[in-house]
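Researcher: I'd like a candidate sequence for this fold, 294 residues long. If you have to choose between options at a position, lean toward the conservative one.
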């Protein structure tokens, strides 16, 4: 049985921006907020972190700060995916050089590929590093779906340790769980179905919502790991209206606004993303007020 890279809650961290670059003071405070509220890992430079609009220098500096703050305390997982296998390998090897605890690699987007292409892509990535690799399946963004049978084959590779399943298809997720068993770890990639995924064998979530309510999300996953699904589902249902508000517009637009409402960082995003609408901002404010005093 492979050891999970983490169990419980990993926050898919936002990257706070100023007008001219990354807001490292805010990032430092955000990392403290996550650690103090019980998360089990962080993912930097995932989709929520907006790496597509960041320079290589900015990305390296974000990883460096996260590792300085958290190394040895909780795992730091680095988003390293690209639609070019060669570029992904470069990113993965750089993450390893810097001391990351693992990497998250999204499926190739735009040029897409077949299931055979996915097998070869991830095998090449895994063979290029000693780091644990988590496959990120998010077909709504990439146009590519990792089929359960494909991931089951990938899970036979020693350092392919898990999958972030964000297909939103519970039937598919159940099949993944039934095929991989102890070969790899299943993580929810959707805040709205974390407890259902964990009830069929998932070990946690890579979460957007935990940027703003890390304590609640951590309590929910902790209860699920203890198989206290009555408590876990209560927290899932409590979280549901906020999750709905967080995805009223394309991620990370709403979560950045939520972070601003909590005083964590600016809501600034980079084009082609735009600021949250007043309707979204009001929904976020209303739902956060039910869960947090701010």
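Model: Candidate sequence:
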């Amino acid at each position: 049985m492979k050891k999970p890279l983490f169990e419980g809650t990993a926050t898919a961290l936002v990257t706070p921006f100023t007008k001219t670059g990354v807001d490292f003071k805010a990032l430092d405070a955000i990392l403290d907020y996550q650690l103090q509220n019980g998360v089990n890992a962080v993912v930097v430079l995932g989709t929520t972190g907006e790496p597509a609009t960041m320079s290589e220098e900015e990305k390296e500096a974000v990883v460096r700060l996260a590792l300085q703050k958290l190394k040895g305390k909780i795992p730091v997982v680095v988003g390293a995916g690209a639609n070019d296998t060669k570029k992904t390998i470069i990113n993965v090897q750089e993450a390893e050089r810097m001391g990351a605890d693992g990497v998250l690699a999204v499926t190739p987007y735009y040029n897409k590929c077949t299931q055979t292409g996915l097998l070869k892509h991830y095998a090449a990535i895994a063979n290029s590093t000693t780091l644990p690799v988590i496959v990120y399946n998010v077909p709504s963004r990439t146009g590519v779906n990792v089929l359960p049978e494909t991931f089951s084959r990938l899970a036979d590779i020693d350092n392919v340790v898990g999958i972030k399943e964000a297909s939103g298809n519970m039937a598919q997720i159940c099949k993944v769980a039934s095929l991989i068993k102890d070969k790899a770890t299943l993580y929810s990639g959707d805040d709205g179905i974390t407890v259902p995924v964990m009830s069929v064998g998932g070990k946690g979530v890579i979460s957007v919502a935990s940027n703003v309510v890390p304590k609640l999300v951590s309590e929910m996953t902790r209860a699920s790991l203890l198989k206290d699904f009555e408590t876990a589902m209560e927290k899932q249902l409590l979280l549901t209206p906020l999750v709905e508000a967080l995805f009223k517009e394309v991620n990370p637009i709403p979560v950045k606004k939520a972070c601003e409402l909590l005083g964590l960082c600016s809501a600034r995003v980079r084009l082609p993303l735009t600021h949250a609408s007043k309707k979204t901002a009001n929904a976020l404010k209303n739902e956060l007020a039910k869960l947090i005093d701010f």
